[in-house]
């Protein structure tokens, strides 16, 4: 599992979740949509249960998604993306730990690491300000400065030696990743920035990094998904369930307004409003012959 360490704004993942659905329902609908082109019979309930177990959200299975915590929201979104029967070779996640406390962040990253090992896929995550425990959970890191400049690429443990070899002074109590991020974001330490940049460029080229992390994919690849009526039916059922659970008050109010409008028209204009000739008395003393 690899991480890009940079600085970004927090991104709200709740917009990807349809409020009113339970966690299990959200995963089941996601599984039906992602696997609609697979002819073999799939147990969508089982797929949802296995993902909830892997991501440690089984206790929230019957909770509505809007009542879950921030860390649970992130894991639910990840689970929705992994409901496909054929798992992706690579999963890119933007700031999976933003807005979380250290304990919740460790749970999220540990779940991602378990999924990476279990399904043999590469997970690339961008993180800003990781703590030391979180930092060492990754297999490879890629520290970025402004304009996408790479300051370090490799396993987490040798980062201290990399800083030392670049003539960056570190005390025993300094945390290497915090020092590297300070250099990356502090415009006053341009000298140290150039040292790290030149050291990294002399170690390994981008072509070598790409070649070392490539994996051949065999078989026919079809990234696009065509229109299908089962998908339309699934989306319609999901929308109806959402409207019934979360929007019933609005729907009831709209129906009441329509009924009230019809009754008022009936009282004001009488039964002549439905006469086919369209003639009805509007003003006092006037009729259809005037």
TrEMBL record:
Provide the protein's localization.
Answer: Membrane
Which Gene Ontology cellular component terms are annotated? membrane
The record describes its membrane topology as: Multi-pass membrane protein
Family according to the record = Belongs to the ABC transporter superfamily. ABCG family. Eye pigment precursor importer (TC 3.A.1.204) subfamily.
Domain named ABC transporter: which ranges? Answer: 16-98
Where would you say this protein principally sits, based on its record? membrane
List all membrane-crossing ranges. 250-269
Q: What is the lineage of its organism?
A: Eukaryota, Metazoa, Ecdysozoa, Arthropoda, Chelicerata
| Name recorded for this polypeptide | ABC transporter domain-containing protein
Q: Which GO terms describe its molecular function?
A: ATP binding; ATP hydrolysis activity; ATPase-coupled transmembrane transporter activity
Q: Which domain of life is it from?
A: Eukaryota
**Pfam families per record:** ABC_tran
């Amino acid at each position: 599992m690899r991480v890009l360490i940079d600085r970004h704004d927090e991104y709200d993942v709740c917009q990807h979740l349809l409020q009113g659905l339970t966690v299990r329902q959200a995963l089941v609908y996601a599984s039906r949509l992602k696997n609609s082109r697979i002819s073999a019979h799939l147990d969508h309930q089982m797929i949802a249960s296995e993902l909830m177990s892997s991501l440690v959200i089984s206790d929230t299975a019957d909770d509505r998604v809007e009542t879950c915590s921030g860390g649970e929201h992130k894991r639910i979104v990840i689970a929705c993306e992994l409901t496909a029967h054929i798992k992706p070779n690579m999963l890119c996640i933007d700031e999976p730990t933003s807005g979380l406390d250290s304990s919740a962040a460790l749970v999220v990253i540990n779940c991602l690491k378990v999924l990476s090992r279990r399904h043999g896929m590469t997970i690339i995550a961008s993180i800003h300000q990781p703590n030391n425990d979180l930092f060492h959970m990754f297999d490879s890191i890629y520290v970025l400065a402004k304009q996408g400049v790479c300051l370090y690429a490799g396993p987490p443990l040798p980062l201290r030696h990399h800083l030392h070899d670049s003539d960056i002074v570190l005390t025993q109590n300094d945390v290497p990743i915090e020092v590297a991020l300070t250099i990356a974001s502090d415009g006053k330490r341009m000298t140290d920035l150039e040292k790290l940049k030149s050291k990294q460029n002399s170690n390994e080229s981008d072509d070598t990094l790409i070649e070392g992390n490539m994996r051949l994919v065999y078989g026919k690849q079809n990234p696009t998904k065509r229109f299908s009526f089962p998908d339309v039916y699934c989306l319609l059922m999901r929308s109806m369930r959402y409207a019934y659970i979360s929007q019933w008050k609005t729907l009831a109010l709209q129906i009441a307004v329509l009924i009230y409008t019809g009754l008022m028209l009936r009282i004001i204009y009488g039964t002549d409003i439905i006469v086919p000739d369209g003639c009805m008395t509007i003003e006092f003393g006037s009729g259809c012959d005037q």
